[in-house]
Specification:
The protein has eight helices and six strands. It has one domain. By secondary structure, the chain is of the alpha+beta class. The strands form two sheets. It has a four-stranded antiparallel sheet with strand order 1-3-2-6. It has a two-stranded antiparallel sheet with strand order 4-5.
Amino acid sequence: MPSAVEDPWDGEGVDPWLPRQLADELDADVAESSFRLMLADGLARWLKAVSGAVLGQAIPDVHALYTKDQVWRDVVGGLVDGPLKTSMVNMYTDLLGKGDWEKRAMVTQQLAEATNRMLRFPDTVFEMLTSEKTRITQSGGSVRDVVAGLSVFLGSGEKRWDVKANLITRTEVLSALNAGRFDAIKIIGEDGPGQLYHMWLSMHDEFVRSSHMIAHGQIVPIGQTFEVGFDLLRFPCDPLGSTEETINCRCRTIQVDKNGRSVQKG
């Protein structure tokens, strides 16, 4: 069972964890910026290719989306091997110094899971396209109406794609950063004296889901799991957790002693 400090911060007065969270937020902002730029460019290229495939025939065929699978695979590969891997490895370097951290099993596992998640994105878009095409035809739209509607729908300037890109960016980058921090602290524990602990910290604002607010202040030994909702999570955005508890999560962990006193630099 996780323990918890009696009152890590109740939202009143000065937040004692604010300096650490601001430092983590800066790390995340830098990592997210490069990832988001590359994703936006790749998503625009893929949407253009999909639009040409789906609409480039007499009757629009949403299944033609999958003929551009390799385009999306190339986008995902660039993201994973580029900014995502760099961001994760930087967490090891920050805590442990330079090393061959990209060879760690955690890095390999995390990047493989991120790849698999992002490769499922075309399935989401297929469902969206199918729903939009059905909506147009059921409202009495002609083939020309379907073409016009799907053309607008697939436009890279549509807000829906910005929302999707932001969601992917936040979830994947923070998952990689948290996984890297988690594994680096495990290494410190293996090489140092005594048991290490970490504490779950939410952003403690109106956007935090209730289960994460409840998890705020939980302390567990490194290697054990936090109880978050119905999930057991190793760290925020843990890819082994449910989407309900991991997508777009902004929580952090901080290294502490068993009584909740910070022992982490910065």
